[in-house]
């Protein structure tokens, strides 16, 4: 069974770049079925998808965050990373990584739910000066 673990700084200063890592274990990383997501839950708000890495190797982003987001893989370490630039206090919340299969894609890009796919436990990020 695939397992995911998020890691990164708990505190980030405004205007800096947030970098988070998701370490994957227990299952195939690269195949034609796996979509690898970053999702967040800002404080007091609903779950929001940030972006994902597709089986093709391309990355796709939520339009509301696209200009500030980059997702990339380190296949030698079975890790994928999120970079979110120019953070503000509104980026404070819990950040999750997840593995999702094709039938779950429409759900994850509209109303993300932990019932879809395998999720990490999440990591809390506070943007604070």
Structural commentary:
Helix content is 3%, strand content 46%. It is mainly beta. It is globular, with a radius of gyration of 14 Å. It has one helix spanning 105-108; strands spanning 3-7, 11-12, 18-25, 35-42, 48-53, 59-61, 69-74, 79-84, 93-100, 118-119, 123-127. 26% of the residues are buried. The chain contains one helix and eleven strands. Strand 7 (69-74) and strand 8 form a beta hairpin.
What number is the mean pLDDT?
A: 94
Strand content is over 45%
What low-confidence regions span 5 or more consecutive residues with pLDDT below 50? none
The profile of the biggest β sheet is: 7 strands, mixed
Provide the gyration radius in Å.
14 Å
Proportion of helical residues: under 10%
The total count of strands amounts to 11
Structural class: mainly beta
How far apart are the first and last residues' alpha carbons, in Å?
Answer: 40 Å
- Shape, principal axes of CA atoms: globular
The helix count comes to 1
Query: What string, H for helix and E for strand, traces the elements in order?
Result: EEEEEEEEEHEE
């Amino acid at each position: 069974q695939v397992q995911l673990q998020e890691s990164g700084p708990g505190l980030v200063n405004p205007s800096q770049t947030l970098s988070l890592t998701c370490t994957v274990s227990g299952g195939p990383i690269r195949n034609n079925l796996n979509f690898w997501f970053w999702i967040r839950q800002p404080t007091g708000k609903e779950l929001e998808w940030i972006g994902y890495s597709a089986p093709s190797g391309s990355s796709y982003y939520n339009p509301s965050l696209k200009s500030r987001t980059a997702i990339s893989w380190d296949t030698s370490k079975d890790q994928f990373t999120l970079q979110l630039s120019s953070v503000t206090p509104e980026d404070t919340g819990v950040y999750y990584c997840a593995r999702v299969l094709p039938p779950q894609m429409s759900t994850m890009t509209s109303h993300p739910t932990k019932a879809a796919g395998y999720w990490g436990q999440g990591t809390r990020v506070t943007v604070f000066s």
